[in-house]
Amino acid sequence: MIEFKNVTKRYGDKVAVDDVSFNIKEGEFFVLIGPSGCGKTTTLKMMNRLIPLSGGYIYFNNKPISDYPIYEMRWDIGYVLQQIALFPHMTVRDNIAQVPQMKKWNESDIDERVDDLLSMINMDPEHFKYRKPDELSGGQRQRIGVIRALAADPPVILMDEPFSALDPISREKLQEDLIELQAKIKKTIVFVTHDITEAVKLGDRICLLNEGHIEQIGRPQELIQHPKNDFVKQFMGDQIEQYETAKLNHLSQYGKEISADVIEQRGLSIFDSEDTVEQVYAALAEDDAVAVKDERSHQYLELSRAAIFNYLSQTRERVGEKV
Ligand code: ADP
Ligand code: MG
Q1: Which of 7, 8, 14, 160 to probe ligand 1 with, by most ligand atoms within 8 A of CB?
Q2: CA-closest candidate to residue 194, choices 221, 168, 164
Q3: How far apart are CA 240 and CA 314, in angstroms?
Q4: Which InterPro entries match (predicted)?
Q5: Which domains does the chain carry?
Q6: Of all atoms in ligand 1, which is nearest to the CA of residue 209?
Q7: pLDDT (tens digit, 9 = 90+) per residue, 25-59?
């Protein structure tokens, strides 16, 4: 559906994208990932002609993108940015209605579409459609940004680090939303992130960029199990290690509150919430649980051995689920 053929982008002497070729299939969730400055945004923006190429071709449905009328093309490709810029003086409804209005949809079709989209992300239309952006939380604004990109039903959606400005809880919620949404709409999504956990969670395939060239393209599991070179190994390796060295505070949802008296009675070892799962392994060989002290609330949580292994197996499964 989208094909890059020997695409190069130079800014002066600086080669931002270096002879890149790949193919994105229809309905695919394709993730572009890599360190900051590796060329992700440039690659994305070339797809809807926000940036001209210095060399090579990009084809959209087998036709060079330069053959499409530029505005139509932009309207046919949804675009979501890190900081969604909703028009502050407009209601949620009017923000979502932008592209359909440019495409001259009639207002009743637009209303129907707005209601459908809001319902799709579980935001009650009656409750939300006449609100202004400043009457929404950051996470809600970002969700509106995502459905706004879908408004005119474009076949392709480009997303540039759409969740990276959010707190971890909202980010996870939006990732879940997007997985659910994609299952319903089955669009071709090109998603840029520098967060490998996000990439592994969302991507059908991952394209790992480094200094403007492709290090490896494949399913998440392929990159983890068969990294092509040391760069890929290190990039993915950190990911696996991250699970093994997960900080105990990431597990707080698996814990149960416990009092200091009970900890003493049971003779449980006490750890700090910044300690890692690895550090508690030894203690778990002796006891069936450990206690974790939360520095801020001064409360203790009991983390059972079962809860910790359950957490680890779930995170591992997530890494492996795309096999
Ligand atoms: P990423 O999104 O992966 O962080 P970018 O695609 O934004 O990377 O940038 C790739 C490289 O091109 C970087 O080295 C960046 O500094 C450079 N670059 C991006 N935009 C411009 C520009 N308008 N002018 C000059 N250099 C740029
Ligand atoms: Mg970028």
Answers
A1: 14
A2: 164
A3: 13
A4: AAA+_ATPase, ABC_transporter-like_ATP-bd, ABC_transporter-like_CS, P-loop_NTPase
A5: 2-241 (3.40.50.300), 246-314 (no CATH)
A6: 3
A7: 999 999 999 999 999 999 999 999 999 999 999 99
